Amino acid sequence: MGGTTEAKALCKAVRDAGVRGVLSLAGRVKRPAEQGLPMRIGGFGGVAGLADHLRAEGVTHVVDATHPFAAQMSRNAVQACAEVGVSLLALTRQPWVAEAGDDWRHVPDIDGAVEALQGDAKRVMLAVGRMHLQAFAANPQHFYLLRLVDAPEGDLPFEDCEVVVARGPFDVDSDIALMREHRIELVVAKNAGGSGSRAKIDAARALGLPLIMINRPALPERAEAHDVAEVMRWLGH
Ligand SMILES: NC(=O)c1ccc[n+]([C@@H]2O[C@H](COP(=O)([O-])OP(=O)(O)OC[C@H]3O[C@@H](n4cnc5c(N)ncnc54)[C@H](OP(=O)(O)O)[C@@H]3O)[C@@H](O)[C@H]2O)c1
């Protein structure tokens, strides 16, 4: 189960090792990048649907390499794999941590970020993905810079905003230039960890910008690996 930079690296390793694997994506992105393995796209239909799928396909190993904020999928995987008796390993990354001089305000979730944005109008880079934009309409006083994989269909819930259509991974120098170009004063980010979307964190640091950091959702206990090599050892390769 993918949709991340880490999953892409794992797909390559699985293919190179000659292991039979299928990449599962939710279907949030219009044209997903080729990742070296056959893909199946779309939700399974909850825990029951995933359990049926695992049985029908004779799946022996599930790697949850989804984004740390894809909590529903990760919870479903824990339940369905336990039910069917399939081994599950999560490929996870350490959260980002503030360094000396960083001005981070930690909030527990999207609602916390919306609340933290109350107050005077600012120029905000809102890096929370497409799915949660609506909640931020509660603070229409700000200018919002959005970076999305696909151009939005229909109207965005903001009066003053700009969309950059781009797909990660991003680099720090370009993100510094982007923030300068849009005179960004504040960054809102999910604490994804990993390297694929880290550039904006480093760029905010370089520019001395304050950052609202959304903490990760809680997940159930599961076996975890922190790099691709560990997953390959678990698969027996
Ligand atoms: N959330 C983020 O910030 C974020 C950022 C970057 C990439 N992504 C990627 O985008 C995808 C969706 O994330 P999300 O936060 O919307 O997930 P989510 O809220 O945890 O999942 C909602 C539902 O979407 C379906 N789904 C999610 N991931 C799937 C996958 N890899 N394969 C098949 N079905 C999947 C499942 O539907 P059913 O219940 O019908 O099975 C799941 O119950 C994930 O693959 C994730 O890795 C998410």
Protein model, in words:
With 237 residues, the chain is an alpha/beta fold. The protein has two domains: 109 residues, HAD superfamily/HAD-like (Rossmann fold, 3-Layer(aba) Sandwich), CATH 3.40.50.1000; 111 residues, Rossmann fold (3-Layer(aba) Sandwich), CATH 3.40.50.720. The chain is 30% helix and 19% strand. Strands 5-10-9-6-7-8 form a six-stranded parallel beta sheet. α1 crosses α7, α2 packs across α3 and α5 crosses α6. The model has no long low-confidence stretch (mean pLDDT 96). The chain binds NADP nicotinamide-adenine-dinucleotide phosphate (NAP). NADP nicotinamide-adenine-dinucleotide phosphate binds next to β1, α2 and α3.
CATH top-level class of the largest domain: Alpha Beta
How large a portion of the residues is in β-strands, by DSSP E?
15-25%
CATH topology of the largest domain: Rossmann fold
- Share of residues in helices: 25-40%
Strand order of the largest sheet: 5-10-9-6-7-8
Mean pLDDT: 96
Small molecules bound? NADP nicotinamide-adenine-dinucleotide phosphate
- Poorly predicted runs are none
* Count of distinct structural domains: 2
Q: Between the first and last Cα atoms, what is the distance in angstroms?
A: 19 Å
Classified in CATH, the superfamily of the largest domain is: NAD(P)-binding Rossmann-like Domain
What does the overall shape look like?
A: elongated
